[in-house]
Amino acid sequence: MKNRFSLSFKAFYFIYLGAVGTFMPYVNVYLEKSVGLNGSQIGLIAALSSVVGFTVIPIWGVVGDKTRKYNALLRVSLAGALVMVALYHKAATYPMIIFCAIGLETMRLGTIPMTDTVTTKYCHESGGNYGAIRAMGSLGYMLASMAVGFLADKFGLDGPIFASYAFLLAIAIPISFTFPKNGNKEEREEDKLQKSSFKELLANKNYIFILCIAILTTVVVDSAMSYAGNHLVSTLHGTKSLISWMTFITVLPEVLFLMVAIKVINKIGFKKYYILVVISMIVRFGVYSFSNNQYAFLAVSVVHCLGVAMVTVGNLTYIRNSVNSAVLGTAITLFNAAMSIGRAIFGYAFGIVYQYGNSYMIYMLGTAAFVVALIILIRTNHFDKLDVKKGHVF
């Protein structure tokens, strides 16, 4: 039974993140090259969709924790995203594109928090390896993204990104029905005894700390890398297939590393690992900032796997050990919501920088944010308890 559930989770992450990989790396290039939008317009779409998503996404977690219907909410999220993708493909005006982007962001932002809540609970109870499960998602992302990149060179972006995204979402929905059922009566009663408030969560210093670190690192990386396709194609004058190769170079090491990530983190300690990751980010974005060589850009991207392990295995482990289990779904969802608003701010700012400056400047600003994060990490003692325990939940 445990193996069956593990396979279900792996299949879901593989298909769903594959769907994300067919769309997210290419959507800004599509908006620039196919629709004809400028940097500010693209940045505004990212900002508005993220801001609206931020106001809605906590509802996913609160409703999930109240009802324990994580699986049902997951299916609503998937179905809603499927509808919005279909509308997005038909959008012909800028206001309609904004509406579809907002709707898609609102729907899709519920998927990963609900899935992570169910998956981490399963791993915690069965001793499963979340990193190994999540690695299959990275593999799906890589393969699907590369396939779409090569198709885009032959047929353009319009058809492949929307058709692939919708097709894979449609497959993900039935897979979600194979997940373990939500908590039984005894588990719900236990959660009632551990009842915690939303206000208490916001007052949790450890939770706020990891959220700030995520904004200064992961959010900046995600926001800046949403312009990586523009940088490769427009600034470095590469082909669209280079986006596929970038995905391959970043994600293949990620797939392999996630399987052993928690062992590495526990061996060297959370604090040392986070410091190592941020140093690698500084080196990576430093090269991005000053090199005009496409292959140097691709080569240094290999360290991306360290950051992914931090935001998935590292951050979720830290959160699980820092918050009341009765509000775990809310904690994960709020975490994603805060990252979403961070992406909105940085995404819009980077769009303006891209339009009035250049893409090199985006990576320079990212490097500065990482330096701030490094200083905070060196001085903090928030990891001390977790490093002493050497106890992880995945």
TrEMBL record:
Residues 8-363 form the Major facilitator superfamily associated domain. It is found in: Cell inner membrane. Its main location: membrane. The keyword DNA damage does not apply. One of its GO terms (cellular component) is plasma membrane. The chain crosses the membrane at residues 12-31, 43-63, 70-88, 94-111, 132-150, 162-180, 201-221, 241-261, 273-290, 296-319, 331-354, 360-380. Pfam families: MFS_1_like. It is a multi-pass membrane protein. InterPro entries: MFS_assoc_dom (IPR024989), MFS_trans_sf (IPR036259). Keywords: Cell inner membrane, Cell membrane, Membrane, Transmembrane, Transmembrane helix, Transport. This is Transporter YwbF. It comes from Clostridium folliculivorans. The lineage of its organism: Bacteria, Bacillati, Bacillota, Clostridia, Eubacteriales.
